[in-house]
Amino acid sequence: MSQTVDRALSILPLLAEGPADLGQVADRLGVHKSTALRLLRTLHEHGLVYRQSDQRYRLGARLFALAQEAMENLDIREIAHPHLVRLNEGCGHTVHLAVYEEGEVLYIDKVESRYPVRMYSRIGKPVAITVAAVAKLLLADLPEAERRAVAEKLDYPMYTARSTPNAPAFLRELERVREQGWATDLGGHEESINCVAAPIRGADGRVVAAMSVSAPNVVVSADELLTLRPLVRRTADAISGEYSGRTPQKDNVT
User: Fold this and answer.
1) Sign of the C-alpha dihedral, residues 223, 162, 218, 114?
2) Residue 85 CB burial class (10 angstroms; 0-12, 13-18, ≥19)
3) What is the pTM for the complete model shown?
4) What value does the mean pLDDT of the chain take?
5) Core-most of 12, 70, 227, 242, by most CB within 10 Å?
């Protein structure tokens, strides 16, 4: 039975490459045509493959509907939270998770620092979009035209001397973030607070969320915080793998 299931599932990535006839499917699986036909018929009955008028098979609409439904029901916060907690336990600093929705970047999860000096931030609160590291990652992933349109509509308050001053500077920063795959906020919002962030990607490679570690200067210097960048990126990669289904949950490590 397990061999039959394995063979049937092996047909799906083959058809993802394009329509294939019975002979091609049989050859790829290394089975007789009659065996391949039984597998295809079963998949066809469940709507996972479709037989075209030219007798070739392609992926069925039901498969796409299932994939879409699964994606819509994925809760990035639920998936990410255990990873954020482990990261917090390892470094002791505040950990945030953020998403981009309707023109705002919002915190959707937070694990507090174990140190007495803590950041003032809360779940559901918009971040300072022109300086926050998580915002840079989320906006950097937008298509260029959309990225430029967003940047040109924003206000650029000078929270500190290190704040992003205008749209051209912001766009340059987003391009740099896009190329390097991580972001920082080193005193851009509050002089005493530094932050390093990494992107969380879906199965299509697009950024669906961003996570960060933040700490005040009185607890750790900016240079010391930046040494956590590899750990932050590994955590984000582990969340990405679980969210997109690339790795089993038990294999995810931070």
Assistant:
1) negative
2) middle
3) 0.70
4) 89
5) 242
